[in-house]
Specification:
The protein is built from 15 helices and 12 strands. By secondary structure, it is of the alpha/beta class. The protein folds into 2 domains: 215 residues, D-Maltodextrin-Binding Protein, domain 2 (3-Layer(aba) Sandwich), CATH 3.40.190.10; 113 residues, Periplasmic binding protein-like II (D-Maltodextrin-Binding Protein, domain 2).
Amino acid sequence: MEKSLRKSFVPESWKSKWLIGLFFISLPLVPNLAWSAQPTVRIAQAVDALAFLPIYVARANGYFNDEGITLELIIVQGGGPDLQALIAGSVDFDATSTGGLLRTFSGGIELLGIHNVVGKCIIDLIIRQETAKRLGITPAMPVQEKLRRIKGTIVGASRVGSLSYQIAYFLAKEAGLEQGKDVTILGVGGGDSALAALKTGRIDIMSFAPPFPQVALKDGDAVSLVANSKGEYPKLNSFLQNVLLTRPDYAKKNPDMVRRILRAMVRGNRWVAENDAKEVAKVVSKFFKNTPADVLLNTVEAIKPAVVPDGRLTLDGLKGVEEVYRANGIIKKPVPWDRLVTNEFLP
């Protein structure tokens, strides 16, 4: 059962030198079904997007309730505050990018990855129609050629340092372009804010998870630059994008609760994998009421192959993420994946 409330909290400051200041996180409204004596579990989610498709399915189908859990979901606008909340103990789980796990590790804090939410990169880059015409970019052009032509553009991601930011940074670097000199990558907030910034010309390029790039494409405001959801950039095809995190101490003290959460999550993964995309889109449509039905269906079709039925974390996918964060200069020492991830709590 999901619990409905709206409030804000200020997590305690990080114990890591790379975080400065305090973030305020607001709780979104979720359906208020009834009060229950079930234990309440707080899960943060980095962004309200279909990149977390199995979680929306698990919520819609009542899988958390089946495990005797009242879910309190906290959705923020881009990776960062969600990780801070997990470290501070304001939440006990966080659905976020695998890169978030690497960022905390680089800052001297170890979290624990316990579930594969989405097992490939689905961050797409799209470019304004007007900008594409000015730069001579066409949809049929090879992706490397398109990227070489984006010099002088402004790219909008959810938040500086987030996965959408890191993917844009990596692709620009692959094309020989330098952030802050050849291109400018900004944090613009949530998907709706990014769409507005693209439409008004505040940004030229949008780097985001579905369904927001697909909405802009359908509206005719943009053309595709890099369709990672379709495997267009080979280096990002082996890339475990989103993971469920917890704190090692919490997992050690509460192994039964971790297993209950993961049973619900894996049921979501399996249901996505085993059902037709139209049925999946229908089930999650209540969470994306402003997304046109055809866009929602196309997005689900793109994400569905990235959902691993058993939720297991794979070394190849993790190494793919490590390569991007190493190229971006965030990771400078070997990553001890045996300490940072585990499949032991999965059903």
